[in-house]
Amino acid sequence: MNLIRAQLTQGRITTEPFPESKPIGGRALIDYWMTEHGSPTVHPLSEGNVLIIAPGLLAGTSAPSSGRLSVGGKSPLTGGIKEANVGGTAGHKLARLGIQALIVEGKAEEWQILKLNAGSVALETAGDIIGLDNYVACERLRERYGDKISIMIIGPAGERRLANSTVAVTDVEGRPCRHAARGGVGAIMGAKSLKAIVIDDTGTPSRKAVDSGAFTAAVKSAVEAIQSGPYGTLLHHSGTAGMIDIDNGRGSLPTHNHHQGAFEKFQNINANRLIELNKARGGSMGHGCMPGCAVQCSNIFHGADGRYLTASLEYETLVMLGANLGIDDMDAIARMDRKCDGLGIDTIETGCTLGVLNDIGLFNFGDGARAEALIDEIGKGSPMGRILGSGVEITAKTLGISRIPAVKGQGIPAHSARSMKGWGVTYATSPQGADHTTGSVVVDPLSPSGQVERSRTSQIINTAFDATGLCHLTFLFKNPETVMPMVNAFYGVDLSLADFMEMGKEMLRQERAFNIKAGIGPAQDRLPEWMRTEHLPPTHAVFDVPQEEIDDFFNF
Amino acid sequence: MNLIRAQLTQGRITTEPFPESKPIGGRALIDYWMTEHGSPTVHPLSEGNVLIIAPGLLAGTSAPSSGRLSVGGKSPLTGGIKEANVGGTAGHKLARLGIQALIVEGKAEEWQILKLNAGSVALETAGDIIGLDNYVACERLRERYGDKISIMIIGPAGERRLANSTVAVTDVEGRPCRHAARGGVGAIMGAKSLKAIVIDDTGTPSRKAVDSGAFTAAVKSAVEAIQSGPYGTLLHHSGTAGMIDIDNGRGSLPTHNHHQGAFEKFQNINANRLIELNKARGGSMGHGCMPGCAVQCSNIFHGADGRYLTASLEYETLVMLGANLGIDDMDAIARMDRKCDGLGIDTIETGCTLGVLNDIGLFNFGDGARAEALIDEIGKGSPMGRILGSGVEITAKTLGISRIPAVKGQGIPAHSARSMKGWGVTYATSPQGADHTTGSVVVDPLSPSGQVERSRTSQIINTAFDATGLCHLTFLFKNPETVMPMVNAFYGVDLSLADFMEMGKEMLRQERAFNIKAGIGPAQDRLPEWMRTEHLPPTHAVFDVPQEEIDDFFNF
Asked: Do B403 and A46 lie within an 8 Å CB cutoff?
């Protein structure tokens, strides 16, 4: 496997073998690279920052749900290390092209496209796709480069280097609806004047396992384990939206700018409603966010006219653009999601951002038209759009708002920290900032006891998973022991579960060390103070995990 | 001396004796209070933050130039501890009213005025002065409360809680042209819904020294020392603008967004030009920024029509709104200064903020009309005005600019760090962020050697001075030994020079400890990376004081 370095200031591309012999992929590769070569003190939008794109260890193989791709660097949103994780078709294709990591450095004078084929890597000027909505730009790129490509692209938000910018990745249908969404990785790409990466793996062989017999058996066993459990079936049927009833029921559904933990009108935005509308309009559930998924929990949403509107309405989007804004019109949420995908902005951060505007009278809960218009401002690049596109913390600072739902500069996602206290610990401590994928904790949610330990275990496992390219949701309630035989057979190594856990620990240590050098240390490992005093209905919980225990998180 | 606590949420005012027996004043009082009672983790705009106003130890006495007033709290701009230092008439009056410190807590429902008289302290609703320019509002307040008052007031910027908001203090003529300008202290006051503090010391006796004979002798000796030196005379004659030729000559005059260290047209904005215009138009040099000043280095500037335009055109303003923006029209600079004073924003931060707009084509160097129009946007409170009024770092983040002249979120003032390397160390290490009053260093400016030690000594002395209410400039090249006899005689104590230095050290330690708890530690003690690589003409210096030496700064 190779490392491709694209130095855009010089227009120089080099291909070299990856220097380490042990398997390092995905988030682990980002952590490795930032530790060895990244600068913690560089400005995230300066030439000195790097954009790292790394498929997981099992990408490009027949391992189920193994195409999650890691995109990272120093975050324009948090100022710390960042890995944003995304589905779509790019992960598998990159791996089949033998690319262990793509490192983008410097800054081009003109907007560029990086074209990756079997045996060739080239930069081309981006031309007339600048300024376009991601959907339109991807159409143009397919006209230019053919239908078989996978595209990684930034929208108008990333071009403007807004801190809430994503890197979109096309799905199986070629739509730019999967996003490496958090932490502003799109702004890093924009600051390099790299508009898109076009990946064509035509003619590449599939990756070969070192022990192909054992690998085939391990894959078979993993697929069986996934498909025999009830969780995969539920996810396939309801999508991540299935969590809405559960979170609403336990009072952990962020509603009305995190003022409530349940939404009166949750039934208008939940999985049942989504299934019902899709049935009536020709949309679909059970869609894969990436090829080779054993669960397929994604969906395609059609509008009232029966035509494609957006994909995919995930739990986080439905809650943060729905309940958190008091909006129960699923069509309005779908239009907002489509706008966010087109502009290349994160729906979680956007939901937090619009929510806080209620504090100063700039947004009324439930006003979907106003929410859409505010997202349109981001599209226009107006001064207000630039404020909103910079995320919730900058929006609050600019507009004089002090009640901010964010940790380390990143908006808090759709599981309430106060009524899911273990998850609150994850938000507080993750080197990635408040994040929904870094370490879920669902046990004993209203008790402050034991949550630091639970969060630690969960974060270690999730972090290790992010090295593999495997989907958290697919493997969520599986034992990591399902995973190790695949990795071992593919690479011809003999890693134990303890090794897997140790890899997660080492990654967290690297991320923590980078952040401390970047000026983000223990003092930033805390939830906003108001979460410790303001009671969240209906549970009336406050966040009361002792800070001293949280401060002990990294002692492992 | 008393401590007045105004709890605005409850509308409760208490007067209590200050609990400590040893003399603690000005910046030292802010450091003491924030250490003992402040919360490092509170949001600066939340009710939990405090606004502290503290006269120096010698305020309200006949000690020369002793009325500098400290205004502080947790900074909305830097997120750390903040003391902003200001002249005007308030310091002396507060001290004569027996007020050692005024602590404003909580947040009122409606805009308030705090009225301090001999024997009474009261809150009143602010009424029709909300939204007004500081000059107009002060006229109204004098109509309401009489001509003898001193006023501390926030402008429209502070009302909007913009991070670059000042607290203005009226001068001897009653004009709101002296500003506790840095760190956004006006936004703290705005977040408490406190529009103004009206101070009337009518009928209060002057403060009595414990040993009045010795105090009179010490004051006489200090005045003689000041007036016998050449520096006081120079300052009186040329004002702080006298530094322009010096800084320009040594290449340390920030010009064109810190791209140059000298300004071709410096003679159009220097002291000679100021004196010439004032002579022709009826303005004046040699004006006191506060009563009882032994130097009087301030000025009053008249426009081309011969009428008052602004006061005072100080070095920092002339450079940051002049050379740094490529503007050599002193009238344009004066109008900008007047606008900044009216809105209640800092001219240094504003100069840095407008300067970076050049990077993205929103401002051309030399375009005074555009600069004025951009300041007007801040006045309008438009989205662009809110961006610009939030200071240079937020402006850069919102607009996607990565070359930011700021440390700890605060814009770098008008002595170039690269060609005044000792000063650069001060910018990097001061707990106050990049600041022109925390520790000047002029020795061997282009050498990286010995600058940490020089900055440390300078910062310790300056910090201690900020406890006394004495003006740095007046006493700049005097030995602190001039000062101690005054403090000792007034308080009946026996502090040595070593005690004075130890006070400065202890204050810095307190500030540092607060900042570390607030999440601002060693990783933030650094200049922007581009200052280490980008050469500054005409000296072509880069900042090359080794970071390891800088990291050793607080080992004292």
From this structure: yes
Distances (CA, A) of A157 to A131, A342, B399, B429: 9, 9, 11, 35
Of A398, A401, A529, which is closest to B394 when you measure between CB atoms?
A398
Residue A21 confidence class, pLDDT cut points 50, 70, 90: confident
pTM over 0.90: yes
The minimum CA-CA distance between A38 and chain B, rounded to whole Å, is: 14
Rounded CA gap, A77 and A432, in Å? 10
Helices (H) then strands (E): counts for chain B:
21, 17
d(CA B106, CA B18): 20
CA distance A247 to chain B (A): 29
Size of interface A-B (CB pairs under 8 A): 107
| Cross-chain residue pair A523–B528, CB shorter than 8 Å | no
Helix (H), strand (E) at residue A109: none
Longest alpha-carbon distance in chain A: 63
Question: Helices marked H in A37-147 — which ranges?
Answer: 90-96, 134-145
CA B174 – CA B148 distance, rounded (Å): 9
Res A485: pLDDT: 94
How many Cβ atoms sit within 10 Å of the Cβ of residue A334? 23
Q: Give the gyration radius of chain B's Cα atoms.
A: 21
Determine the Cα–Cα distance for residues A424 and A412; give it in Å rounded to an integer. Answer: 9
- Residue of B75, B54, B170 lying closest to B411 (CA atoms): B75
| Nearest C-alpha neighbor of B354 from the set B343, B340, B338, B334 | B340
Identify the residue among A359, A362, A399, A402 best suited for mutation to test binding to B, counting B beta carbons within 10 A and taking the highest: A402
User: Measured between beta carbons, which residues in chain B are less than 8 angstroms from residue A403?
Assistant: 43, 46
pLDDT value of residue B479: 63
Instruction: Please check whether residue A160 touches B, CB under 8 A.
Output: yes
State pLDDT tens for residues A250-292.
Answer: 999 999 999 999 999 999 999 999 999 999 999 999 999 999 9
Residues B48-59 have a mean pLDDT of 98
Residues in chain A with CB shorter than 8 Å from the CB of B530 are 43, 46
